[in-house]
């Protein structure tokens, strides 16, 4: 009897307290769902990273007025590199991002080049800079798949000339002179948003530089090597976007 009476009292209280509101169409509200904001990809940034690279160069050798070695000789090298850069991105839509970039690579990609006659020298791709654009598609709000393209300029160090057969250093300070030239590059990579403006970027690039003459001085006659390099690099590193926050 007591249990039955308590049920009647509770039911009466519910009808009295909530009945008019329910009759008027009132329904208890639920708190709105919390939606996590993705990163904004718009803003200036700085980046730094490490990587590895290889280069390959075809050469032909000339003396004044004649071709010494008309057949192309293939030369190459490889080594580590570091990269720093700055840039600006703009997120045009929920999926499309584009921007501009500037990178500077300091490297030690060592190899050898030969005139295919009797001399060889060590040469190293020691620094390169890039300026270009990039554009990409957001596979998710946090992952950007992008391509880059632009202009680049690189430098190869010179070195002492050696006899190709004996390895002995040639006299009279004979040396292969430095090489500097411009060209174009294309690249592609992934960038992942982490937290509070920090991103992780990995990219592969291919660069093609124009054919420039490198002098072999200190020998007679003086030889000219037409040096035509291509360079491939892969880098990975961090990016900090100054205007970005989670």
Question: Would you mind describing this structure in some detail?
Answer:
The chain is mainly beta. 9% of the residues lie in helices and 66% in strands. It is built from 1 helix and 11 strands. It has one helix at residues 2-23; strands spanning 43-63, 66-91, 96-114, 119-140, 143-156, 159-163, 175-176, 179-195, 198-209, 212-217, 223-241. Strands 1, 2, 3, 4, 5, 6, 7, 8, 9, 10 and 11 form an 11-stranded antiparallel β-sheet that branches. The radius of gyration is 33 Å and the shape is elongated. The model is unreliable at 1-23 (pLDDT under 50).
Task: Spell out the key features of this protein.
246 residues; mainly beta; eleven-stranded antiparallel sheet; 1 helix; 11 strands; 9% helix; elongated
Quick structural summary:
The chain has 246 residues and is mainly beta. The protein is 9% helix and 66% strand. The longest helix has 22 residues, at 2-23.
Query: Are there runs of 5+ residues with pLDDT below 50, and where?
Result: 1-23
Q: Can you count the beta strands?
A: 11
- Quick one: overall form? elongated
- Give the biggest beta sheet: 11 strands, antiparallel
Taking all Cα atoms into account, the compactness measure Rg is 33 Å
Percent of residues in helices: under 10%
Our count of helices gives 1
Q: Could you give the distance between the termini?
A: 61 Å
Class computed from helices, strands and strand pairing: mainly beta
What is the succession of H and E elements? HEEEEEEEEEEE
Mean pLDDT: 86
The portion of residues forming beta strands comes to over 45%
């Amino acid at each position: 009897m007591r249990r039955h009476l308590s049920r009647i009292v509770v039911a009466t209280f519910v009808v009295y307290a909530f009945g008019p509101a329910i009759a008027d169409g009132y329904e208890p509200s639920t708190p709105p769902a919390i939606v996590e904001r993705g990163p904004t990809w718009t803003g200036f940034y700085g980046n730094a990273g490490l990587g590895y690279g290889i280069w390959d160069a075809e050469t032909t050798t000339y003396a004044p007025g004649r071709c010494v070695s008309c057949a192309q000789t293939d030369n190459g090298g490889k080594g580590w590199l570091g990269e720093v850069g700055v840039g600006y991105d703009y997120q045009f839509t929920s999926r499309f991002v584009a921007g501009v970039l500037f990178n500077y690579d300091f490297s030690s990609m060592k190899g050898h080049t030969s005139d295919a006659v009797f001399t060889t020298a060590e040469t190293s791709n020691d620094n390169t800079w890039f300026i270009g654009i990039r554009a990409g598609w957001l596979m998710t709000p946090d992952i950007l798949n992008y391509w880059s393209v632009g202009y680049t300029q690189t430098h190869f160090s010179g070195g002492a000339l050696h006899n190709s057969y004996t390895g002995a250093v040639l006299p009279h300070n004979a040396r292969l002179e430095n090489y500097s030239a411009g060209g174009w590059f294309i690249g592609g990579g992934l960038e992942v948003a982490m937290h509070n403006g920090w991103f992780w970027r990995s990219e592969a690039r291919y660069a093609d530089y124009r054919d420039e003459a490198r002098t072999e001085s200190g020998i007679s006659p003086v030889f000219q090597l037409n040096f035509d390099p291509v360079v491939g690099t892969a880098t990975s590193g961090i990016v900090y976007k100054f205007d970005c926050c989670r």
